[in-house]
Amino acid sequence: MKIKDVFEHRNATISLQEIANSIGHINNIMTQSSLRNRKETALLATQYLHRVQLAAYESALNQSTEGIQRVALPFVVIKTLTIKNGCRTENEMFKLKTEKESMDIACTAITGGGMGGAVAFISYKSIESFLDSSFVSKENLILDEKLDHFQLNSKVVSGTTGCPKNCSLATPVNFTFPHTQLTGESKKPLCVYWNDISLGWSNEGCHAIFYNGTQTVCSCSHLSTFAILMASVVLAEDPVLTVITYVGLSLSLLCLLLAALTFLLCRPIQNTSTSLHLHLSICLFLAHLLFLTGIDQTEPKVLCSITAGVLHYLYLASFTWMFLEGLHLFLTVRNLKVVNYTSAGRFKKRFMYPVGYGIPAVIVAVSAGVNPRGYGTPLHCWINLQKGFILSFIGPISVVILINLIFYLITLWILRDRLSSLNRDVSKIQSTRMLTFKAIAQLFLLGCSWCLGFFLTELIEEPFRSVIAYAFTIINVLQGVYIFVVHCLLNQQVREAYVKWFRTMSKVPESDSYILSSSTTHTHVKSNFRRKRSNTSV
């Protein structure tokens, strides 16, 4: 069934209640339709809006008496005003209110300067789920500042006086929209209308004259279908924080590279544990390198989406390998009889790679399948924060942090009971101090920095937001330093290997110098011998 079929064979005196019942049938069509793409959604919704407005307006215009009519259903509220005897004063205003939404319109805008006229004000209760923020394009918006993360934050309403499309009103119409969600200071509302031509939201001819955290009042020079679009104000970059980010990432990349080479080439320490460290270092190195070079490359959009997807995968893989590290340490300590790593063999390597690289791939594939537009934003090549898509990242790493925290608490509890019996030659104080240090460092590796990142929302005001941002950045970008220091520099076998490498490298120049010196001496002696022989012959 088509939407227009619902209104066919209706007479001119149809009641507003009958109109509302017909709209109920349309609403069912909208809800039950199998929409193949965004264009079909937009076309069907546009047809829906036109039919509703036209039917409500004609019902009001054909009323025999002057006055206000109202009908409320679960899916729509309609309020109409019919004028038969002209305006009482030149500046007479009318307020039409559905539930919480309202429209203030001048009498002259309704009558058009004549004696009669009608206006319909309609509030929808489900259309915003179809015409959501995915129909927002910056090409259709007039912006005087940088905005990002657009999201509908009101019900959708329509107003009509029978005026043709794009006709301007001499007196602007004001709409009051309660917000569906509370907003912070970093959010800015945009008064938008549904553009039938571009099939998207536009703010041309509309602007906000008042707004706070709970409502927005819009002033528009034309009538159409309207809503509130909430956007995040893009704050100016902190130069100090930017320097810390780039310097920290560069240092982290260097340390991760050195750590990976150490785990790969230092034979005395090669075991399951160092294999886990190696893959963690590789994932973090690639993630930080891609972040440093591609996070701001938003054009072309396809490449930006790919960058965001790869970043999502690499960071998830990093956390997965961190989880495997925690699991390996827990299994090792639980089965310890003496202080060694012989129980590492229990940790099967054939399970490491499917888990370490397979699970993140599955999460990213499912996320991309559910919401293909979730990767890439107008400002950064990262996960889109709208529609809860960020949960595809926050969810898995929260689980990793929680599980590994449990692993470490149990590990420390076991070590406390067994430490004295495991190695009586080692001072208990020194051992406990070292274990505590490594546990804290490992906890950072398991995502303490991202715990701080969870609080970086618009609900956190300054100066706490800046403090959290600095702490998050400093800790996060220096993860490579933690890995290199804790797993390499604090390892005696690694330090001994470094010393051997340095000695080997330092011996090469000395050997070359000795060979060159010996060659020169031999040539000099040979030359003198030939000179003496020549003199003897003479």
Task: Please describe the topology of this protein.
Layout (H helix, E strand, L loop, with lengths): L2 H5 L8 H17 L5 H24 L5 E7 L2 E8 L9 E5 L4 E5 H5 L5 E8 L22 E6 L4 E4 L12 E6 L8 E9 L4 E3 L3 E6 L3 E6 L4 E9 L5 H27 L6 H23 L6 H34 L14 H22 L20 H32 L5 H26 L10 H14 L1 H11 L2 H46 L1
Antiparallel strand pairs: 1-2, 2-5, 3-4, 4-8, 5-7, 6-13, 7-13, 8-12, 9-10, 9-13, 11-12
GO molecular function: G protein-coupled receptor activity
Keywords: Cell membrane, Disulfide bond, EGF-like domain, G-protein coupled receptor, Glycoprotein, Membrane, Receptor, Signal, Transducer, Transmembrane, Transmembrane helix
GO cellular component, one term: plasma membrane
Short description:
By secondary structure, this protein is of the alpha+beta class. It is built from 13 helices and 13 strands. Strands 1, 2, 5, 6, 7, 9, 10 and 13 form an eight-stranded antiparallel sheet that branches.
Description:
It is found in: Cell membrane. Its main location: membrane. Residues 79-236 form the GAIN-B domain. Residues 241-491 form the G-protein coupled receptors family 2 profile domain. With 538 residues, this protein is α+β, with helices and mostly antiparallel strands. It has two domains: 3-233, Chondroitinase Ac, Chain A, domain 3; 239-497, Rhopdopsin 7-helix transmembrane proteins (Up-down Bundle), CATH 1.20.1070. It has helices at 3-7, 16-32, 38-61, 107-111, 239-265, 272-294, 301-334, 349-370, 391-422, 428-453, 464-477, 479-489, 492-537; strands spanning 67-73, 76-83, 93-97, 102-106, 117-124, 147-152, 157-160, 173-178, 187-195, 200-202, 206-211, 215-220, 225-233. The strands form two sheets. Strands 1, 2, 5, 6, 7, 9, 10 and 13 form an eight-stranded antiparallel sheet that branches. A hairpin with a 3-residue loop joins strand 11 (206-211) and strand 12 (215-220). Mean pLDDT is 77; it is low at 1-13, 337-344 and 513-538.
